[in-house]
Write the structure tokens for this entry.
Amino acid sequence: MSSTVIDRPTDITVPAGGLWAKLPLIAGVIGALCTLGTIAMMFGEHKDRAFFAYLFAFATVLSIALGALGFVLIQHVTRAGWSAVVRRIAEAAAATLPLFAVLFIPIAFLGFHNLYPWSHESDAILEAKRWWLGADLGNGSGSKFLIRAVMFFSVWSVLGLMLWRKSVAQDALIGDTAGRDKITHSLWTLSAGGIFLYALSLSFAAVDWMMSLQPHWFSTIYGVYYFAGAMVAFYAFLALTMMALQKGGMLKHAITTEHYHDVGKFTFGHTVFWAYITFCQFMLIWYANIPEETEFYMVRMEGGWDKVSLAMPIIHFFIPFLFLISRHVKRHRTGLAVGAVWMLVVHTIDIFWNVMPNQGAHGGGEHDGAAAGAAGEAVAAAAHAAPHFAVQLVDILALVGIAGLFLAAFAFLLKKSAVVCINEPRLFESLRHENY
Amino acid sequence: MATTPKTWGLLAQYETPKAIYKASERVRDAGYTRWDACTPFAVHGLDKAMGLKPSTLPWYVLVFGICGSLFALSFEVWAMGSEYPFIVQGKPLFSLPAFVPVWYEFTVLSSCLTVFFGNWVLNRLPQYYHPAFKSKAFARVTDDKFFIMIESADSRFDLDKTRDLLKDAGATHIEELED
């Protein structure tokens, strides 16, 4: 209940000559070189590893952009006031989603055969799932797999771009209250429908691209699992971007400790949400003890992956839980920065742990002749082909590559408009936002 | 038998959230410590205007939450592992994943109960009698009026000076409360 009059912020454009202005070029060049390097390795001797490294990097960085899209949709659907000063950051991150459609090409056309065992293997379980999975086109990609990917990227690209473009268009309408409100109302309508499409497309994409790496295995909570991780990663990314923008001379007074506190709360909350979902998936599979389901964890309980599996609850839940639970940490820049970097790192490890052990896993059908792969031994034996836990150069290369391209696109979009929704009706509410 | 009623303090009525916010700042700046503000709804930021320290409740919740958490886990380990060992689903007697739901829920439960009852204790509730209950005007605190009361036990309390302060801060009605 501050009685002081707050002015519209003026430090709202990327200053020329600063690091933010150069970021599209710097990150773009580094990202393009590393991505091309990874793609080149897809034709080399260790192409399998290159494909998996690329998919891991793709899924990790995509989760940040998808988290951003989810954030923007939720802000509009709930008509949130506090977030008006940081929403443009998320809008720009979500508007990079068309880039991921391009980055998906190596997965869809080069790595499809090597990544997804169901593309060329056959057994009773796989044939029962064939109506969904679809067949191999014979030209290196799957028919239904490809159609679904086009659908996912269409939904994300249209939503991401429209939410960003309309919001940017609103910036120019200062003084035109009717025009401004019309845009806000259309954003609400778009988001109300969009949030359903978003939830469905994200879930099915996680099933298609990550769950079907182990095609016998299934987990009905997998889509939510990916979503939870995506939100954690996005909020951590958002906190760091807010700090970086302020360091770069933008939004010096617009973003306050109160906004950092709220972003910290969401990072904390989604960390708990992630732990809840992850444990739900694990406990049901552990209790029921059915071979097709336990396969997922069996692969991850040997060859060095066991250490990652056991570390996960500690580094992705207990440590950040006890650290971020404090109000003082969330309101302290360095404290929140440490928490955000930590969450981004453990989220990356989480996706790595989800994707990489599947290299060499196969359905257990065609190759060893087991009728249905239903026998526990057969499934377990099939799982033994998983590589030992190790981080290779190509993993880092792929991650830097795709993250670089994402950052370049993100910084490029931020530069194209004000870095804050300057004409958002709730801007002033957000500027004087306080936590009680 | 007749004893002269002792003055318990002063009750001042304000009309708007803004008025009580400003008045609270004045009372805070005048250095009073034994006083309170009563409003029909939460006036955001009033704790700052009153100069209240952050609540100690989170620390109680942390301590009782950790105690509840440790109790639940050790109880499960003791009950399932030694007091009444019982094989379920062919799992080992010490099966941490099976303990987690109860462990987690009990941690939440003990934290929530601490919040609920801690809130009562720290607010000295239930309170069956308060001098302000005798005031007719004060009944509207649950409707549309805002009140500040300063206790005579406050070292800075002076009937006339305190009355002037409250009046000067925009009070529309002031009355003495008797114990």
User: Anything to note?
Assistant: Residues 57-83 of chain B form the longest helix (27 residues). The longest strand of chain B covers residues 7-14. Helices of chain B lie at 17-29, 46-50, 57-83, 96-122, 159-168. The interface with chain A takes residues 17-18, 21, 42-47, 49, 58, 89-91, 97-98, 100-101 of chain B (CB under 8 Å).
